[in-house]
Design brief:
The chain has 702 residues and is α+β, with helices and mostly antiparallel strands. It contains 22 helices and twelve strands. Strands 6, 7, 8, 9, 10, 11 and 12 form a seven-stranded mixed beta sheet that branches. A five-stranded antiparallel beta sheet has the order 2-1-5-4-3.
């Protein structure tokens, strides 16, 4: 550095001498433990050169040629140490090409600085040339300091978590040193007076970093750096920015005073270059794909950032909500994003072995209609057995070692590029066919591994969706079967009632009262059958149960009247009470329980229905003196469907009764003793009588 920078000699001497003594002491302290590997040797060399630079700056001044040369060597050794940390054998995930490029560029800048230092020492140059050398040197040091900060940031940020502790203080010390240099040489290049003071006190700052290096735990041997693609791209971007400003500043300095209007020429050239680049890259998807492939190939040892790819893949498949596309389309898109494919198809196989499209996402090839015959049973079995990715370009050109019986429609459509099998538990649940991008490249082992693994994940999601759909269908059938069982039980009761009517008609057909009762019974039976058909409908044609305040007298009388013709049934208690019930549902439940009581009793034995109030509840008790039930039957079989003690019984009466009573907010209790009869108690919520009106509950006419 030239002598234009003036410093305070005494302050400069003591600050730099302090730095020299500090790093010399640190070097001696670390030497007593020996040198175990190359990284420790490089660290000791950096301490030595830092001490040597500080001593030369103290005795000759920080701007002296020897001090400037020693500073260049010091920076070179520190950069070499960081480069060693990012060496391939120390990297857990190998995409370090971009960061090593930044390190190489930094070394190139230091090399240029070294050449200028040697020329300044070894050769005598005119004053104007020396001035240009000096400005260029300061600018190179600005670039070097900025690059050093970039490298320190990336080395620390991408270090393995276990190694950040040992290197944290050392990285902070380097950041302080190069951050100070960045400000110093920026002010010096701009000619700001503060640069002199910064140069004078720099030795004190360097001395202050020594304890940070000393407190680092000395585990350089275990430092492992894991560099991500994001770090590499950030490093390359920052390098490009620094390089741009450095080139522009160097050209401005070199061309100053030549009389040539270089700004206009550079502006025209930059605009022309940007225009050509925009014309080539922006409209052309092929050019962008080519650039991406080349960048991944030459800067990264692995093609994919697996963490980013997996997060994107699972995020696409797992997307939910009203705005989300169907699962099949999301699966196709997830695979298309991996290979930058413009679209794709999800193919499935039917029972006959024909392949049909199940979903499509932006498929640019020939449309495939569902139901068209595409026999491919042999292909489907082969892919299921081997589970390999199908490279259709290799199949077309005969490069497959073990060719599959690929269907003609895949071969004939030039857009078809890659086929990914979706295998779940060794069963092929689907096949994703991807279209080729504008820039078609050859697939390698890394593509195959990622697609095969992603295929199993997607197959699991599809299998789960299919399982849920099958479960939903099974639940629909179960609900239909349950309703059908209830209805069949009611039909049996209606058949019994009509059979009794037909037998009595032979004896009492001439009786006008009997004929009137027969007509009413037939109308009631027809109404009940229509209601049963409505309940059997799969879509909401059935009546909706709704609990409402209802007087019990008419409802109980109607239910008992239907049974009293064949068997004595007595109604006792306060029948003027009201309860919160669904009238048709309660009538149906009481009818089932009465029929069970009649069937369990001997002919002529009385069945009693008693209504009582119990606080906030109404209790309707149905009592018979029949054969009764034991505790095991009541506990485990009474309320199970299809469990019956009657010959020809369906075993759903008690089950349906409890379901109806529970639906209206009540409960059903039972006590029974073998040989002594049973009591079924319906507990309902009491209701206040309606005021100012006579409520007539909806009921079934018996």
């Amino acid at each position: 550095m030239s002598g234009e920078l003036t410093v305070e000699p005494v302050l400069s001497f003591w600050t730099h001498a302090m730095a020299a003594a500090a790093f010399a002491s640190l070097l001696l302290w670390r030497l007593r433990t020996g040198v175990s590997d190359r990284s420790q040797a490089m660290l000791l060399a950096a301490y030595l050169l830092t001490a040597a630079w500080a001593w030369l700056a103290a005795i000759g001044g920080p701007a002296s040629p020897l001090a400037v040369l020693a500073e260049t060597f010091r920076n070179l050794v520190w950069i070499a140490l960081l480069y060693g940390l990012a060496a391939p054998e120390r990297i857990e995930e190998a995409p370090a090409g971009g960061v090593r490029l930044v390190l190489g560029a930094e070394a190139l800048v230091i090399g240029c600085q070294l050449v200028l230092n040697i020329l300044t020492i070894a050769a005598t140059v005119p004053a104007d040339v020396a001035q240009a050398f000096d400005q260029t040197s300061r600018l190179l040091r600005v670039v070097m300091a900025a690059g050093g900060l970039i490298i320190v940031h990336n080395v620390y940020a991408q270090a393995a978590p276990s190694s950040r502790g040992p290197i944290r203080l050392a990285m902070f010390a380097l950041a302080l040193s190069w951050g100070y240099d960045l400000n110093l040489y920026t002010f010096a290049y701009l000619g700001a007076p503060i640069a002199d003071s910064l140069l004078t006190w720099r030795g004190l700052l360097i001395a202050a970093t020594m304890p940070l290096f000393a407190l680092s735990r000395g585990q350089e041997k275990g430092w492992r750096i894991r560099l991500s693609r994001t770090a590499a791209f950030q490093s390359l971007s920052l390098l490009a920015i620094c390089a741009y400003f450095a080139v522009m500043a160097i050209l401005a300095t070199a061309l100053k005073g030549t009389g040539w209007d270089w700004t206009q020429g550079l502006t025209v050239g930059a605009i022309a270059a940007l225009t050509i680049g925009a014309m080539v890259l922006l409209p052309s998807a092929r050019a962008r794909a080519w650039f991406k492939v080349k960048l991944a190939k030459h800067f990264f040892e692995h093609r994919y950032d697996y963490r980013a790819e997996w997060l994107r893949f699972t995020g696409t498949i797992g997307r939910s909500g009203a705005e989300a596309a169907p699962l099949g389309e999301r699966v196709v898109k997830a695979f298309a994003d991996i290979l930058d494919a413009p679209g794709g198809l999800l193919l499935v196989s039917d029972e006959a072995g024909a392949i049909d499209p199940a979903a499509a996402w932006k498929w640019p090839g020939k449309p495939l209609a569902a139901g068209d015959p595409r026999p491919a049973a042999a292909f489907w079995r082969g892919v299921e057995a081997e589970g390999r990715i199908v490279d259709l370009d290799a199949v077309r050109h005969g490069h497959e070692d073990r060719p599959l019986d690929v269907p003609d429609f895949m071969i004939d459509d030039a857009v078809a590029w890659v086929g990914v099998p979706l295998i779940h538990h060794e069963r092929l649940v689907g096949f994703v066919l991807l279209a080729a991008p504008d820039y078609r490249r050859s697939l390698d082992w890394e593509d195959f591994d990622l697609l095969r693994t992603a295929g199993r994940q997607a197959a699991s999601s599809l299998a789960e969706a299919h399982g849920q759909e099958a479960l939903l269908n099974a639940q629909r059938f179960e609900e239909f079967n349950r309703r059908f069982a209830f209805i069949l039980h009611d039909v049996k009761n209606l058949v019994s009632q009509l059979s009794l009517l037909s037998r009595n008609a032979e004896r009492h057909a001439d009786n006008p009262d009997f004929r009137a009762d027969m007509v009413a019974t037939l109308k009631s039976s027809v109404g009940k059958m229509n209601d049963l058909l409505a309940r059997l409908a799969p879509q909401g044609g059935a009546r909706r149960e709704r609990a409402e305040p209802t007087p019990l007298r008419d409802l109980l009388s109607a239910a008992i009247a239907a049974k009293r013709r064949d068997h004595p049934v007595r109604l006792l208690g306060d029948t003027s009470l009201w309860a919160m019930v669904d009238p048709p549902g309660l009538e149906q439940a009481i009818g089932h329980l009465l029929q069970n009581a009649i069937d369990a009793s001997e002919s002529g034995a009385q069945v009693t229905v008693r209504v009582t109030a119990d606080g906030d509840e109404i209790a309707i008790t149905i009592i018979d003196s029949g054969i009764g039930m034991d505790a095991e039957f009541v506990r485990h079989r009474l309320f199970q469907p299809f469990a019956s003690t009657k010959d020809g019984g369906f075993g759903v009466g008690a089950f349906e009764s409890r379901a109806l009573i529970t639906a209206m907010g009540g409960r059903l209790a039972v006590t029974s003793t073998p040989g002594k009869g049973s009591q079924f108690v319906i507990h309902l919520i009491a209701a206040e009588p309606a005021q100012g009106r006579h409520a007539t509950p909806q009921r079934k006419i018996a």
